[in-house]
Amino acid sequence: MSRAASPTLTMRQFAFVTAAVLAAVFAHVLHLPIAISVLVVAIVAASWVRHRQGGGEFPGWVKLAFIAAFLLILIVQYHTILGREPGSALACSMLALKLLETRVRRDGFAAVSFASFALMSALLFSTSLVFTLATFLGVALLLAALRELQPQPPNATTTSVGRMRSYWPPLRASLASLAIAAPLALCGFLFIPRLDSPLWRTPADAGGRTGISDTMSPGSVQSLLLDDSAAFRVDFDGAPPNRNQLYWRGPVLTDFDGTTWTRRDGGISAADAGAPASPASVISYEVTLEASDKPWLFVLDLPVEIPPDAQRGRDMSLMRRRLVTDLLRYHARSALSYRLDAELLPEQRNAALALPDHYNPRSIEQGRKWRADLGTDEAIVGAALELFHNAFFYTLSPPLLGRDSVDDFLFNTQRGFCEHYASAFVVLMRAAGIPARVVTGYQGGYFNKVGNYLVVRQSDAHAWAEIWRAGRGWMRIDPTAAVSPQRVELGSQAISFGERAWYQGRWLFALRNQFDLINRSWNNLVVQFNAQRQQSLLHPFGVDQVDQPTLVWLLIGTSGLLLTLGMLWAMRTSRRRAAPLDAAYDALCRKLSRVANPRGDSEGPLDYAARLRKQHTLSERCAKEIQRLFADYVGLRYARAFPTSDGIAEFARGVRRFAVETRA
Q: Which of 86, 104, 609, 626 gives 6 a disulfide partner, CB atoms 3.0 to 4.6 angstroms apart?
């Protein structure tokens, strides 16, 4: 069918197509540039108004202007159109532009098909349970739009676009279709043979997700402390450690330029580095890490056994050889009691004592004064912690700091969170001649007793310090504990009530953690269902490993069984729907048998209606009503494979209201 011959979309059909486009775009809204989101909304609004007013296509220069605007935004934002995020932004832009020229039914089908592709591509960014359910609802909306675009019978009535109740039947039918298809989809999910690795991968947009990074500057961790999403989950082989031992090590920051702490590449650790002082302190656990688009793996202090695809730096931080772009599960062992670098190399000592010139003079003077007055390292560390304990406050909304950020924090604002205390403490220690560095990662977590696992959230992000002592090596000092001990003992929730009391209520906190149990089950059963787990599907039945031919036969057998059961159910449903229609038709024939010979067993409705037209004893109004009822019955009984319940009910009501009238 040519575009010119395709029927023009009704306002109701255009409303469903517009809703399908918006559903696909909204699935990407969290990672779309704001400018593109605004332009998409503007295009949708302009298309809606123009179609409602019965206008034609937009001028070509308008489309070209929008195309140029979208391309300019993409180049400025991403410097390319290749990759996961720029590609999805381009797809959403093209989908919105398609709506500008959607006037006829063929355009509507093309827009909905393109929206289906854009909606499914959103799963490249998230496979969480909530997002998958939202995508499921988006698919239902797309199916409803396709249903509305189907040609309607000539006698079908058009419902007003303004009645919201009229939109529910197509959506209900779409949801029912998806529910019917769910068993077959589950069959395919379980038995379609999987490869050990995907045939293709999307280019990773590094840094596109929240998480710990390898730099730290004033305020850089604040966004994490306000993020309640899960960072990773941990299953311990035995009892979990005490909360004050739950320090999840991430990047170690050594270099400081006066504003920002950065990581120094110190090489790969030796095989025997970090040997525990007591073998009894070693614990085993399994971490399920959420995608972060970063290489960092988080383990308890101090890792003694690491995953095969990871490498351990001399500072004991763990890094994967490629970015964590998908949910990752790895096993590790850590020593809670350890001795690290009992002897410090000269280059390591120099790096751990370095301070930038012409920055934070008051802090450096304070550290040197402590060294001159107190002498010992223990006394200097105690003086710093006592200073924090007596005069400082923990807050997630600290005042802004100036150029000399440590001086400003120590002697003016005296308010901040973990990164402020760790940074200031390390500067004071270095000024006093004690090698020190900043360690970032997470601290604490919530232990879910129902699922028997620990969930660590982004809001558990933390920064602490390490100082080096002769003969002892690197030892952890957490200056935040001197200011707010409950942050370590009770977790991040304990210090957030004043900042976000509405969100940190105990009942809501408990509800979020219980919901995380559902998310964890979803990750284990669906997201991490790989080829290895597929091959062990029949292990409960005594089959150790299922090969691919067996999977194919299982797929054929189960899908064939499901299709047969579905066909039998459809046939039974068709008969069940037709039974009330036939009963109403029999009631009509009984009424008419009072004024005409009864309908013969082999006499069809059209033949019976033709014979009734010859009955001159019926009134003119009654004859017209009879012809209408017979036409409705033929349309319901033979024009559709599945007559609608509403149509059958309306026909039955018409039969009940019908009364035979004869000529006077």
A: 104
